[in-house]
# Entry
Amino acid sequence: MVGIQTSLLTAVGDKTAKPLARQLELHTVGDLLRHYPRKYIAHETVTHASEREDQRFRPGEHVTLLGTVEQVTGRRMRHRRGHITEATISVGAQRFTCTFFNQPYRERDLQRGTRALFSGDLSRYRGGWQLAAPEFIVLGAGVSADLPGLIPIYPATKKLRSWNVMMAVRQVLDVLDDPEDPLPEVVRATHGLASLGDALRRVHLPDTWAEQQAARRRLVWDEAFGLQLAMAGRRASATTRPAPACPRRDDGLAAEFDARLPFDLTASQREVGESLSTALAGAEPLNRLLQGDVGSGKTVVALRAMLQVVDAGRQAVLLAPTEVLASQHARSLRAMLGPLGRAGELPDDPTVDPAGATRITLLTGSLGAKARREALLDAQSGAAGIVVGTHAVIQQGVGFADLGLVVVDEQHRFGVHQRDELRSRPGDTTPHVLVMTATPIPRTVAMTVYGDLDTSELTELPAGRQPIATTAVPAGVRPRWLDRAWERVHEEVAAGHQVYVVCPRIGDEGGEGGREPGEEAAPAPAGDLLDPERDTETDGLEAEARPPLAVAEVGPMLAEGPLAGLRLEILHGRMPADEKDAVMRAFGEGRVDVLVATTVIEVGVDVPNATMMIIMDADRFGVSQLHQLRGRVGRGSAPSSCLFVTEAAEGSPALARLERLAATPDGFEVSRLDLEVRDEGDVLGAQQSGRLSGLHMLSVLRHGDLVAEAREEARAVVAADPSLARHPGLAGLVRSVVGEDEAAFLDRL
Ligand code: ADP
Ligand code: MG
# Structure
């Protein structure tokens, strides 16, 4: 019996198994069968040169040739930097030159006599035909006659070629017993899915594209379904314990807050608020994702929910990813609540009954020992109705008198695991959970990344918002534009407004290369934006990469140079907490004109008087991050602007991306744009990718419809059989997709 679990050693013997284990870490039959082809070459598309006249080839034509290497040479190039490898291949009586730049190892792959399939675009070269950097697969000796209808091309290594993988797969499929299908017959029938055995065979060795597609659809479905079953299961396990019911009161803080609101809620805010309010009043735990573009007013919605909880005599906690953001949140909640949030302080407003007010307590890692003790006591005694803190601090087991609601802000730094942890606090109840995304994401992506949550959307911005005029400034090409930008800063300040200048790096190098913790390193382009002698002629090949611009350098340079005379401060995550606070407060109160900052201001910072943002080295930031950043302006009623300054070359993809973003004001559009330029691992979030090693083919972007289908089916199955006890095959599927650890929640159901 050879099954999915059988080791490759047993199934195909040493000679085949050992290289698979060593080179590709494939140890079992299942490992190999899940090592899917990355593409296919249709055998009938192989161009047989001997059957064609020379003149029937056309430059630019895409061809796949079955050829033999006659000669291969490698050398340094004479007129350019770099190395070139040239292989002459014969296809029948015809000769072709294959060229590869800076891949000297190709010489080893293509030794004289090697037979291979070459695939690439034809061009003319020294009177003959050339394929520049073709894809190729090296074939074993004498077996080319035995090719399947579609030749699978596998992810391979230099030592283990695609061809060898294909031969191993064939060997395995010859001895494999049909695996038991985890999908119930009815599910397969309903969704028109192939059997698992068929799918595994045909994904590797299809005869037609239709077979290949049917096979893929089934395998992608398994991944989507496994993931959605896991999410549905988590959702079920999150609701096994009741939540503390928080009925709404007409005479409490929530009502008082609404009465004092200086603006009208948008229809969308009211609608979502209503639905949250109803859910909070019940004992079924709320597990909700609140989506909304930057500036759509998510905080007010969250605060109103928190007040309902406080009115019910319980507590709410607001979790932020960073200290700056946590203290900013505490400050803005206090500002919004006014005297309603100052219980225990000297009464300064005769219209507020001190007994009816609540207290907002900030809890972060940088509090002094005494302040920390007091904050913990506030939380424990219930004196604090609302606790604001960083994820890190709150998760270290802070005790609450009666926790009713957890609000998680800016979710992209927070994973499904942490949500599980929040819900699994000791006690008979589990708090309601409300998650706010930083930038909205498409629905099908939300279904995958936040599949355990239901979704609410704020679909409009508050009335009177000014659009943010965004412009990409290619400073490498047009240095004048940058000079003009600094002039505009002066004009903005003269008009009584404030300005942010954002840099990708902190600068006084630390452990993270001067980046904010959690930031990714971006590739470095050439030149120096602030160097007046900057060389706009730099050649991408030869230029030395420079590190991204840093707050610690740009700040002083601006203060002494183009922005001399303005009140300028810097802000970044490695400053002591009290300094950060002081700078933010000064900026918030209009005592600072220009804030030169890192992405610490990315989220939550709310200074309506700031009307201009200049993002330096904008190409070093992700698309969503840029959208989030520019959302810091345009918060008041004055027109606002944002400049993406970059040295990216004219016509480069980096500049094109910035220009597209500049022309896209809508957050949902932006996230689609963002997803296009990122890969799947990123989409699922750092916390999840890696752990979810069972995802090979699923693309939340391309398979949106299928994800939605799988989600519906998964919810139905889990509703009838939460622990999947009656569906052992599906429990196995969940384990194989999300892993043993991730699937542990099944045992708790
Ligand atoms: P988000 O967190 O969704 O980016 P915020 O909650 O920070 O947005 O709100 C942005 C700004 O808009 C804040 O200054 C907030 O007080 C204000 N605001 C929220 N709702 C409204 C509304 N309905 N009308 C006017 N201003 C609003
Ligand atoms: Mg916010």
